[in-house]
Amino acid sequence: STVVLVFQAPVCKASDEDGSSQEFKFCVKRGDKVRMGEALGR
Amino acid sequence: SSSSEGNAFFVPGATVATILMLGVLHARRLYEDKKMEEAREKGIEIEFSPDKKATFLRLMPLRTISRIWGNVTSVEYPIWLRPYIYKAWARAFHSNLEEAALPLDQYASLRDFFVRTLKEGSRPIDSDPHSLASPVDGTILRFGELKPGTMIEQVKGASYSAASLLGARSFLSIAQDDAIGEIDELENTSNGASKKSWWRVSLASPKVRDTTSVRPMKGVFYCVIYLKPGDYHRVHSPVNWQVFIRRHFPGQLYPVNERARRTIKNLYVENERVVLEGQWEEGFMALAAIGATNIGSIELAIEPELRTNRPQKLLHSEPPKERVYEPEGVGVVLKKGDEVAAFNMG
Fold first, then answer.
1. Which residues in A lie closer than 8 A to residue B137 (C-beta atoms)?
2. pLDDT digits over B175-211, tens only?
3. What are phi and psi of B246, to 5 degrees?
4. Residue B212: which pLDDT band, with cuts at 50, 70 and 90?
5. What pLDDT shows up at residue B216?
6. Which of B195, B151, B228 lies closest to A34 in space, CA to CA?
7. B113 with B89: CB under 8 angstroms?
């Protein structure tokens, strides 16, 4: 079985008033084993 | 006497031949898997290459086989036998039995054991409010950004569009709210009707600037996760979101293992699947749960009455079966980590 997620997220670096980046980045690699609840991206 | 000796010789001979044949096939499979693993480690892309097995699979009544498998695995075992069977399964498919919520002898059948829940705290949910959590245990196959005109790659040389995966039905009110007038309305070329949908708007013009704030431009991303037979087979919510609509696409039930991915074109688009679509804080969110031969039916926690993998004569002849969740525009509110669905055997 397979699960596919399709979603919108910020793409360009833009800063909030506090200077934080809002760009979405995946924090996994192809072939990684993930467990439910672990972050795929931020 | 000579006749009984002959039979005694014949039966073990046939059995040994069968075992040998299965052993050779298994060894060949292991060898191919190892070669594939080595190629992947070297960064060599697996390419699409249809083979005879794929052609043969297309002729097989896989949905029927899947339902028979479901019936076989629903058979209740004697209590004393259950731990032995589930331990054997766990050894074969590398499952962690210590995580199971119940003692092994309380799972009446393999089917029950397969969709077992986990002990409290086995899967801590990432606490970052801006993270996207994995909805399942599994292996990351693909991920990335869907730029205009691009498709999701199954393997090198075989791709499918997000539209064909999620369905083409419109999501009018949400799209209109989110588009903020900056997106040209797409014309439905097939029937001339004007239709907007979340993903169509997003894919056609993925970098949408919200004019009302300094929020960044939005893109459309995807992530494909494969669940092996030994993995925990329940699906959870990746973020806080509202599910507006469910689509059920009755379809084939091809296997979705690595070999199938590189030999069966449009695998994910042809297989039976359930798609949930809605909205999270960054916009559109869709989750597609795709079945396979052994894991043929999908159960929704938010819609327990939904039945999939039912006997059907004609597949792909009708549009997907949809359900808009009430109240319209609000839908079903899910928190990150909430259980959404489960994959069942057969």
1. 33-36
2. 434 543 443 433 343 333 333 444 444 444 444 444 4
3. -120, 135
4. very low
5. 62
6. B228
7. yes
The mean per-residue pLDDT over the stretch B14-31 comes to 80
**Dihedrals φ, ψ of B106, to 5°?**
-95, -5
B13's tokens: 């001979």
- The terminus-to-terminus CA distance of chain B in angstroms comes to 47
For residue B308, count CB atoms less than 10 angstroms from its CB and return exposed for 0-12, middle for 13-18, buried for 19 or more: buried
Number of A–B residue contacts, CB under 8 Å:
193
Q: Which structure tokens are listed for B253?
A: 């039930």
Closest CA to B129 of B282, B302, B331: B282
Give the closest residue to B334 by CA, choosing from B260, B279, B253.
B279
Give per-residue pLDDT as tens, B75-87: 999 999 999 999 9
Closest-approach residue (CA) in chain B for A10: B218
The burial of A16, by beta-carbon neighbours within 10 Å (0-12 exposed, 13-18 middle, 19 or more buried), is given as exposed
Contacts of B131 (CB under 8 A, 6+ apart): A39, A40, A41, A42
Assign B252 to helix, strand or coil: strand
Q: How many residues does chain A have?
A: 42
Which of B123, B131, B297 should we substitute to test contact with A (largest number of A Cβ atoms within 10 Å)? Answer: B131
Question: CA–CA separation, B320 vs B159, rounded Å?
Answer: 21
Which single residue is written with the structure tokens 């039945």? B307
DSSP B293: S
Residue B104 half-sphere exposure toward CB, CA atoms < 13 A: 18
User: Which of B127, B134, B177, B345 should be substituted to probe chain A, the one whose Cβ sees the most A Cβ atoms within 10 Å?
Assistant: B134
